[in-house]
Design brief:
Number of helices: 12
Number of strands: 12
Oligomer: single chain
Distance between the termini: 20 Å
Largest sheet: 7 strands, mixed
Helix content: 25-40%
Length: 289
């Protein structure tokens, strides 16, 4: 049995009641001001697709989640950085200081859609950064990097439940290590930009953190913690997150590309990262009949 979770800024009661009929349930519970749960939902074939379509038109997110699933049952949340934990693509912002934002952003977007090999795309983009002062990385972090809405709430909820955190990125260690300190993350993995005489050389140090490296790191940490797949949450937005997402029992596409939304268990298209917590919401007190 599942619960139907509906999340968003404005959720009309008549719409919830229509959803309850489609989901064959009469009990609607308020989880938060922006989240409702329709208990013991049993939608007929095609009904959830109809609910999801209506949600899309209203900028709401919908999910069918197993009854009785608790965040305390989970042990690890793995997440991408660029356009997931944070709102920007760091490499695009770095390139902006060299007047190459559009060129680099086009390569980034193509890689995230899965149209070109990620490792090759990263080498091409990094090469375009040659000659930039290392201080421009700090400017991106200080002036342009913003956490995605709900990120800190989600991470606080994970910590409270004893869930460890892994930030694994095809971006750069300059940013992941600062976020690790700032947010109290447990594990990080990212690429290293080579710097000589205070300037970027356009080269990368060590092995490239690509899609398979992300998945491999998740498996490593999962094994280190003695967890199985069902105890892992993974959150990402791009094609290079897919192998990592497949390693998790709970996979979440966050404001993601269509190829990712099609291949993950849950999608969050409109809400913030705190919406992930509501996939494990505790029993609420309020109910609508």
């Amino acid at each position: 049995m599942n619960h139907l979770v509906i999340q968003g800024e404005d959720i009309p009661t008549p719409v919830l009641k229509d959803f309850a009929k489609l989901a064959n349930t009469a009990e609607i519970e308020r989880v938060t001001a922006r989240c409702f749960r329709l208990r013991d939902a049993d939608p007929a074939p095609g009904a959830f697709a109809a609910i999801a379509a209506t949600c899309g038109s209203l900028h709401l997110d919908a999910a069918l989640v197993p009854t009785g699933r608790s965040l305390a049952d989970m042990g690890l949340v793995a997440m991408d950085m660029d356009s997931t934990l944070i709102t920007i693509e760091c490499i695009d912002e770095i390139a902006d200081f060299k007047g190459l934002r559009q060129e680099v952003a086009a390569i980034t977007a193509s890689a995230m859609r899965g149209e070109i090999d990620f490792a090759e795309s990263l080498r091409r983009r990094a090469a375009l950064l040659a000659g930039l002062p290392e201080s421009d990385l700090a400017r991106v972090y200080d002036e342009r990097l913003l956490l995605s809405p709900g990120a800190e709430t989600m991470l606080a909820g994970m910590r409270d439940a004893g869930v460890r955190t892994l930030l694994v990125s095809g971006g750069f260690r300059f940013f992941t290590e600062r976020l690790k300190t700032r947010l109290g993350l447990d594990y990080t993995l990212a690429n290293e930009l080579e710097v000589a005489n205070g300037k970027l050389t356009g080269r990368l140090l060590g092995d490239i953190v690509d899609a398979e490296a992300k998945a491999r790191e998740l498996r490593r940490v999962r094994g280190e913690l003695g967890l199985d797949n069902a105890q892992v949450i993974a959150i990402g937005d791009g094609a290079n997150d897919l192998p990592m997402l497949r390693e998790a029992g709970v996979s979440v596409a966050f404001h993601a590309r269509p190829v990712v939304r099609a291949l993950t268990r849950y999608t969050i298209n409109y809400c913030g990262l705190d919406a992930v917590l509501n996939l494990f919401a505790p029993e609420p007190a309020a109910a609508l009949r």
